[in-house]
Amino acid sequence: MTTGPTPALMKQINEAFNSRDVDRIMAFFEEDCAFLMARGPEPEGRRVLGKAAVRKVLADRFRVITDMRWDHVDAFITGNRAVTVWMVTGTGVDGEKLNYRGCDLYEFRGDKILNKDTYWKLLEHRDRL
Fold first, then answer.
1. Structural domain includes residue 1
2. Each residue's pLDDT tens digit, 37-55
3. Domain count, the chain
4. Domain limits at 16?
């Protein structure tokens, strides 16, 4: 077992997400994982706890954004933590277009994702500070 994330592991995780194959993605997660989504009703977005709940939220997401894709920009790894920077694109069934720069903050237990915290830029088309 590896002691934490590696560049090869991070590439495999990105490829799994781009496949939108939920079983393939979930093979990288711990049973007691947490996923903090970029959007949601809480200050940290939407907190999803446990592998079964993460599986459901991803399956639901891929049903409404069937072409969702993350294009790698950069990655940083230190110990059991990693940061990935990417551009996400896709179109929701409601017509919403995704085209955001974002990042994921990961914490691993061995080679499995324990926590995944997602952030992305929010486009504003109004003059605001």
1. no
2. 998 888 888 999 999 999 9
3. 1
4. 7-116
